[in-house]
């Protein structure tokens, strides 16, 4: 039986964190009876809302929240519906905020003073724009630390209420922290100390760490460039080019490659000092069956084959949002046009590759279950009807 309640996956972008988080999640769920009825929840790096990361969200202290409501009392319903409240801080996922605003603005009952629109898609209300000023991406490091530590504390306290549930989280304890600290040119010792505080918070969950890596950072960079294209590297550089890390560095993708080299060296050091059970997996040989076996053995899991199941092919539409899922063979084309392989969970449920989403087929409908991410078509409970 698996002993850890928290499984952390880390590695450079393109190392397979998401793919293997999905694999581990499905193996725990498929083997529930043999595992003493352990349930599993995979928290994707772009989960909405994310319980431990400060990415794509606004964050307020309780004091800032009170001042905000004093200025915008009509925002109380917004906070009540989509904010996550903790002891001293609260947050709202930016995708949820945008969806909430759009829904309110396109509603027939748009007479509320909260969102006086110029058009159905106008998001320039004072409330919305004022909330954007609390974007966590722009927090100074001291504020970031305060919010992040409280998020980990809140997550751990909630997880301990469900001792039979195992949580799989990718890219959270190393990747997000490395980005946040390296961007500010923060000394390694400060980053290590901060992650040390996180490891103390999660101690009660008996955490373990799987670190996926190649023989060196340049091998990972070459793989990433071949897999996602040079345009991806340029996009990430342009997204973050105003961060202090990039000051006085050459412009463009080459600087992001140097960032990845620094990231890799930092992650190696952090792995060495991680204080709990851990596994390092060199994926240079591309023998994924072997690597899966290593991870399963590390987690004390047996490999459970996926059940045989036939995918009900067809075109499924959610009329409310105009989303379309095309099911064909053993895959889907999702509403964004991406091809995604499916893995049977049961006779009528399918895991979706790269996502924590489960598609449940009931008659001529698909019902979305699992966990939601920042793509709205993954909203839990959304129904798609076959045409």
Give the overall silhouette: globular
Task: Quote the average pLDDT.
Answer: 92
The oligomeric state is single chain
Report the order of strands and helices: EHEEHHEEHHHEHHEHHHEHEEEEEEEE
Q: Report the CATH superfamily of the largest domain.
A: P-loop containing nucleotide triphosphate hydrolases
- The number of distinct β-strands equals 16
Rounded to the nearest angstrom, the radius of gyration is 22 Å
The CATH class of the largest domain is Alpha Beta
Tell me what the CATH architecture of the largest domain is.
Answer: 3-Layer(aba) Sandwich
User: Helix share of residues?
Assistant: 25-40%
Structural class given helices, strands, pairing? alpha+beta
- Sheet bearing the most strands, described? 8 strands, antiparallel, barrel
H/I helix tally: 12
Strand content: 15-25%
As for the CATH topology of the largest domain, it is: Rossmann fold
Compute the number of structural domains. Answer: 3
Q: Give the end-to-end Cα distance, rounded to a whole number of Å.
A: 44 Å
Strand order of the largest sheet: 9-10-11-12-13-14-15-16
Which stretches are poorly predicted, pLDDT < 50 over at least 5 residues?
107-124
């Amino acid at each position: 039986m698996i002993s850890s309640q928290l499984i952390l996956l880390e590695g450079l972008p393109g190392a397979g964190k998401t793919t293997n988080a999905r694999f581990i999640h499905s193996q725990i769920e498929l083997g529930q009876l043999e595992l003493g009825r352990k349930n599993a929840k995979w928290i994707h790096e772009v989960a909405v809302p994310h319980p431990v990361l400060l990415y794509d969200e606004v964050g307020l202290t309780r004091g800032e929240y009170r001042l905000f409501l004093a200025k915008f009392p009509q925002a109380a319903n917004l906070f009540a519906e989509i904010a996550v409240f903790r002891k001293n801080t609260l947050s709202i996922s930016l995708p949820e905020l945008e969806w909430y605003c759009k829904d309110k603005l396109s509603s027939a009952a748009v007479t509320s003073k909260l969102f006086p629109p110029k058009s159905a898609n106008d998001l320039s209300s004072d409330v919305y724009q004022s909330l954007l000023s609390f974007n966590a991406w722009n927090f100074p490091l001291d504020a970031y630390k305060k919010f992040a530590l409280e998020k980990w504390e809140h997550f751990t306290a909630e997880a301990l209420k469900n001792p039979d549930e195992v949580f799989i989280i990718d890219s959270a304890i190393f990747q997000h922290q490395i980005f946040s600290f390296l961007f500010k040119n923060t000394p390694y010792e400060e980053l290590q100390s901060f992650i040390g505080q996180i490891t103390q918070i999660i101690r009660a969950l008996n955490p373990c760490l799987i670190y996926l890596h190649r023989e060196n950072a340049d091998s990972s960079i070459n793989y990433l460039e071949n897999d996602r294209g040079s345009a991806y590297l340029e996009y990430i550089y342009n997204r973050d080019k105003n961060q202090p890390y990039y000051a006085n560095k050459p412009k463009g993708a080459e600087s992001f490659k140097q960032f990845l080299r620094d990231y890799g060296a930092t992650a190696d050091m952090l792995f060495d000092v991680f204080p709990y059970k851990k596994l390092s997996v060199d994926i240079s040989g591309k023998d994924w069956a072997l690597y899966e076996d290593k991870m399963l053995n590390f987690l004390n899991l047996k490999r459970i084959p996926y059940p045989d199941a036939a995918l009900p092919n067809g075109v499924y539409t959610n009329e409310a949002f105009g989303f379309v899922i095309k099911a064909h063979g053993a895959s889907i084309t999702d509403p964004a046009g991406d091809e995604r392989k499916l893995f049977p969970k049961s006779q009528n449920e399918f895991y979706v590759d790269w996502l924590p989403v489960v598609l449940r087929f009931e008659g001529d409908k698909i019902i979305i279950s699992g966990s939601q991410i920042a793509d709205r078509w993954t909203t839990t409970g959304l129904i798609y009807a076959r045409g």
